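User: structure tokens for this one?
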Amino acid sequence: METSSKSLRNTYDWAQSRIRELTKEVKVKNNHFDFRCVEDATAICQEFDEWLGAKSRKEMNEIDVIFLEYIGEGSEYD
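Assistant:
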């Protein structure tokens, strides 16, 4: 099982990577722009706003994070 700091780092990196990927280019379908990818990126940004907007590592470390135990297929609760 990952340590909490490693999980936090992976989640932080994923959020930034996913936002970059979604906003890399807006798709055009039938001569219309499809901005759903930008809307998805905005939703991720809003979800992680406090964390992504932290001005320093100290400020980031002061944010409360709640971890939930995985209870899906293959877990100890399966």
